[in-house]
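User: Predict the structure for this protein chain, please.
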Amino acid sequence: MKTRKIIAFALALSMAAMSFAGCSGSDSSSDKADSSSAVQINSKETNIDDTLSQLDLEFTANDLDVGYDASNATAIVYEADTPTVTGEGAAADGRNVTISAAGCYIVTGCQSDGQIIIDAGNDAKVQLVLDDVTLNCNSGAAIYVKSAEKVFITLADGTTNTLTDSGKEYAADGDISPDAVIFSKDDLTINGGGTLKIEAGYKHGIVSKDDLVFTGGNIEITAAKTAIEGKDSVKIADGSFKINAGTNGIVSSCEDDASKGFVYIAGGSFDITAGTDGIQAQTLLTIENGELNIVTGGGSANATKKQNDFGGKGGGNFGGGQRPDGGNFQKPDNGEMPEMSDGERPEMPDGEMPDFGGDMQPPTQQTAAEGDVTNKLETASNDTDSKADTKTETADTQTDSKDADLTDSASRKGLKAGNAIAITGGKITVDSADDTLHSGGSVVISGGSFELSSGDDGIHADEIVEISSGTVNISKSYEGVEAKYITVSGGNITVNASDDGFNASDGSGENFGGFGGKGNQQAAESGDTPYLKITGGTLYVNANGDGLDSNGSILVEGGEITVDGPTNGGNGALDKGDGNYLLTVTGGTLAAFGATGMEEGFTDDSAQVSLLHNFTSSVAAGTEVTVKDEDGNVIATYTPAKSWQSMVFTSDKLTQGSTYTITAGDQSETVTLDSINTSNSTGGFGGGGFGGNRQGGRGQRNN
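Assistant: Here is the predicted structure, written as structure tokens:
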């Protein structure tokens, strides 16, 4: 969320005066010319297909093959806690069994304290069939793969296999700490139709230092820390997973090779409860199918309170939060931002502008509530932003993601990736204390069904979010969708946010830019600025902050868009960046409802006719709104969920020069569209602001 520099009413007045005098007396027409000539949009696209082509996403025939010849296999049988080995390639030593050659080994029986060690050489393929085995190890991994080319653990059909530890610290093996109930130094595949239950009281459930593959089985893991980790990759073709992890659910952590450190889910069902992240990939997380139910950090109800400098736009939204002694406004415990009554903002003292005699000076006296404006402006750009948060999280992952402490600063995200999240299908339900989907690079959604409830962002990427298909329902979030570049070209999307619905932001705070917007103009000229672009899809946004928000430009080129925006005058249903940025419409249908005070309509750069209309008084929630043409034909009908007073509407059914009637309850007003963008807004910083173009920059929400 961008932070407007409106600290109190007196300062707001001085800023308003600056908007008149701070640009050497330029009028709105000259500002408009500067805007249209300076703004550039450099479209950004992901290279997900190229990235996927570099990864090994294949499942081998051996990964999928669950067959074995019991008559030629070596049998390992536990009777009265003593293992008996029948066949070649394995030997018992007390309560432990060591497998030293390639082949198939069938394990059955019960052992209260023992270990299976596979030390077969770098070229050996070993199949270990678990056939109703119960094995506990008091001093280390129940199954420890020291050396092999690849190990296949097959869960025999109809069997239940239980592996546990004592909950005590494991014994080290030289410089290796085999700190999981199943620990492998080499590639490991788990397949079959049986059940595997793991109870890891010390640390982790299943760990492979190479690739970890699942192609079947019913996997139930309770772990003090991470449940499943494949350092080089985790690939899942099928299976049922029930995970309860003290820290992370599923992790791939390799950081040294761009072709590794990924998680690939092609199918399966997942029920994950994690103290920190649900599924985490150092590089790429990709989901093609499957059913995922994930709860992290106790869920969205356990979210950490969000803080914003100045309480967000409008100097704390004039009641948009509670201000602690530290000078920051804070979101209340229930996640909801207080609202202004009837969507109206307070009047300026005496309704007059102070006379500064041509010299712009801030008021010499401020109330205690106004705080130290100068210090806040100087320090705003130094605050922690979303990218810094991501870098910290990445550093934690690189150290040892599976050993993350469950502290207040721990990441509690649902799906998380260092480089990219790519989802083409599946049914995904996430309830997270932190972001539900989070990427240090890109999030690309081209299919699937999503039910997301977040204590922070619903979908967050540091760089790019692309949504082209699928059904996305963000039922709860602080900010719904956030990235530097956001493109929506399809899908059915619903966003509920206690702050901004969509927020195109680079997270740098550079758009603070001084009161004159010079920094913004330079950024706009470069073209490498944030944007929100909607070319298709059906979108519904219910936001207590800005509905559609950008630190740069907003481009509406298609789609069906409805925004139930803020009821307080410190935010707008639509909000582009301050200065030389675009808020244009060239196609589609949009209806955005909100309060008066910071309302914005589309700019004259648009190619499709639009209107920004403020009613004389607020309209109650649930009141039907209709737009009719001169012949009485209904152009559009809406029933906003919240009270509102300002409406932005555009449709290809509108014609410049024609007259339309807008009716809401007992209010009915007639509007003639005499320009590409017709507006009756005269409010503070809305509808183009004082003189038509708002100047000055805004800061950035800290994540």
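The mean pLDDT is 80.
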